[in-house]
């Protein structure tokens, strides 16, 4: 599919690894943790085999939080937990979901992958017209990125089983909210189309 790019949000230790500080992406006791991360790995492998570019969007902020506007309960929680500090284990990619040579990595400091980042420029350079979005958390970074992408003219698909949030109910609600802006498809369906 020419013009298709995978936008992979926040597959990082802080919110994906059981020892990460942030649990709004995958609850500490979530039995679906490895299933969702394995689905993302299958998506990445299929995209790479098909020559579809992957852009990895990572969250990382100044260790002293000087670049963070503290205006939400979620961001206040980051500060209380000491989370998302650049240069720490938490901001590294979780095993198996990091970039390979030649793949783009974009760093940002908010929910939307476009906010405070070079994502728009990278997608332009790649000739993107259709984005396949995935990541952790469905209800925050994925939904924020999908809304932004739809607003600026991209066709968007959400890889539903390569996303996760704190509860299944919250995940399902986020997918339902995005369904009027994006196609919601399983990784298997996406891979079949690639």
UniProtKB/TrEMBL annotation:
Pfam families attached to this UniProt entry: Isochorismatase (PF00857)
CDD domains hit by this protein: cysteine_hydrolases (cd00431)
Descriptive protein name: Nicotinamidase-related amidase
Keywords in alphabetical order: Hydrolase
Entry-linked InterPro entries: Isochorismatase-like_dom (IPR000868), Isochorismatase-like_hydrls (IPR050272), Isochorismatase-like_sf (IPR036380)
Domain of life: Bacteria
Domain Isochorismatase-like intervals: 11-183
UniProt keyword Isomerase present: no
Keyword flag Protein transport: no
GO molecular function: hydrolase activity
